[in-house]
Structure formats: structure tokens, C-alpha cells
Design goal:
259 residues; mainly alpha; 78% helix
Length: 259
């Protein structure tokens, strides 16, 4: 994905890009909603297959890891499918649901590996994100959170880039991360990057709020109810937006080089 001729079919405005992402998602809504249901069912199966345990115990930590890994595997496939759906529409070669599903299998592992790297960065930067326990002193989060959110927004673009990269899957991981950083570092993309970053952290923000409420009210299985349904409902829609803006960033970078 280098901002070639297919990227010229994208609208130039931010509003046009958001509308294009939404309409593209809707055009394959049955497929993507089916995948969202699969994400929910996989998370539910893992949640109820493993006995409940407190999070501060080894059993609880193991269960949390299993749920998160299962969610990452499912999310990576959804992100890949949505990115390929956007890519085929821009190429003027609309694909059937079956074609998208089959093509996604060939890029899924590359996106999964990229997602694991992105999640690792998110894990280590989470204390400075303002989501969850605050740093000491808490006021530090006021200054660090915006930068952490921007970093997460930048890295989120690596996922659709890896899905659409021309490189073989093993090299697509590096291509996704390096191009996401390169495209995002351009000043003319800053306003659009802020929008992508804000939208990308919305599920995390909502999950943190819901989980806090559930824990305070002693609702059983708070992590499951706060995270899995929200993730299933939002991952595909946000992936469509991230894909469209990643391609737009590539286009703007190509235009700047040719100017």
C-alpha cells in the first residue's frame, strides 16, 4: 500500500473519508456483523470454558491472558477482512464475501503478529494513558495521555497497512509498522491523525468506564462484560476508518514526494 492510483478514488476531505469508511463497512455489513458475532462467541466460549478466578491470582492471570489472546486472534481476522474489503472497493474490483474471507486467511497471521506488537506497546504505556490506574502523581496523566493516545493512533494504522501491503506476510509486519510511523510523522496529517487516535481509543475508554462501574457494583465477570461485547461491536467499524485514513496518509505522502 503506497498511495497508488486506487487511493485517488478516496474523497479529499475528512468528512468524505469518514463517510467512505462507513459506507464501505455497510456494503459488506452481513459479513462483518457475522464476524463480530464470531468475536463475541469466541470470547464467550473462552470466558465460560475456564473456571472463574480472581484477577490477582495466577489462575486469574492465566484466564485473562487466554481471553485476550483469543480476542486478538479474532480481532486480527476482522481487521484483515475489513481492510481487504476497503482495498478491493478502492481498486474498483468489489469482491464477494467468500473472496474477502479467503483472502483474509493469507494475511491474517501478519496482522495478528502486528497486533501483538501494538498491544505490547499499549500494555507498557497504559499507566501513562489515563485509562485505568493513574500514575504518581496523577496529574502527570494530563500531560502524558495525549501523547500516548497519539502513539496508539499511529500504531493502529499499522494493522490495515500490514493487511494490504504488497510484501509477503513476514515482511508485511515491518512494512505496516514502519509505514504507519512514516506517514503519521508528516505535519499535514496531524489533524487527521488526532481524529484517528481519538476514535481508536474510544473502545478502551468505554471499556475502562464500564469495567470500573461493574467492579464497584460487584457484578460477576466484570472484565468479560466490559470488554468482549464492546470489542466485538467496534473492531470492524474502527478498522474501516483506520484503513481509509491509512490509505489517505499514503496518498498524501506520495503527493508530497511528487510535488
Amino acid at each position: 500500500m503506497t498511495g497508488g492510483p486506487e487511493a485517488e478514488r478516496l474523497p479529499p476531505s475528512i468528512g468524505g473519508l469518514v463517510d467512505f469508511a462507513f459506507t464501505t463497512y455497510v456494503s459488506h455489513a452481513p459479513l462483518y456483523l457475522g464476524l463480530a458475532l464470531a468475536v463475541l462467541l469466541i470470547g464467550t466460549a473462552v470466558e465460560f470454558a475456564i473456571p472463574a478466578a480472581k484477577l490477582d491470582t495466577p489462575s486469574g492471570a492465566l484466564k485473562l491472558f487466554a481471553i485476550q489472546f483469543a480476542a486478538m486472534c479474532a480481532d486480527a481476522y476482522v481487521i484483515t477482512a475489513v481492510a481487504i474489503g476497503v482495498g478491493t472497493r478502492l481498486a474498483g474490483e468489489p469482491a464477494s464475501w467468500g473472496q474477502i474471507a479467503r483472502a483474509s486467511l493469507t494475511r491474517w497471521l501478519a496482522v495478528l503478529a502486528t497486533l501483538m506488537i501494538v498491544q505490547l506497546v499499549a500494555f507498557y504505556t497504559a499507566p501513562l494513558s489515563g485509562l485505568g490506574p493513574l500514575p504518581d502523581p496523577p496529574v502527570l496523566a494530563v500531560f502524558t495521555a495525549p501523547f500516548v493516545w497519539l502513539i496508539w493512533g499511529i500504531l493502529s494504522l499499522a494493522l490495515p497497512i500490514a493487511a494490504l501491503a504488497d510484501e509477503p506476510p513476514a515482511f508485511a509486519i515491518f512494512a505496516g509498522l514502519s509505514r504507519a510511523i512514516s506517514y503519521s510523522m508528516r505535519v499535514q496529517n496531524l489533524a487527521r491523525l488526532v481524529l484517528v487516535a481519538f476514535v481508536s481509543i474510544l473502545p478502551n475508554l468505554l471499556q475502562a468506564i464500564v469495567e470500573d462501574v461493574l467492579v464497584k457494583n460487584h457484578v460477576p465477570r466484570p472484565f468479560y462484560w466490559a470488554d468482549i461485547p464492546i470489542d466485538a461491536l467496534t473492531v470492524g467499524v474502527i478498522a474501516a476508518l483506520q484503513t481509509v485514513f491509512a490509505i489517505d496518509f499514503a496518498r498524501r505522502a506520495a503527493d508530497q514526494r511528487s510535488a
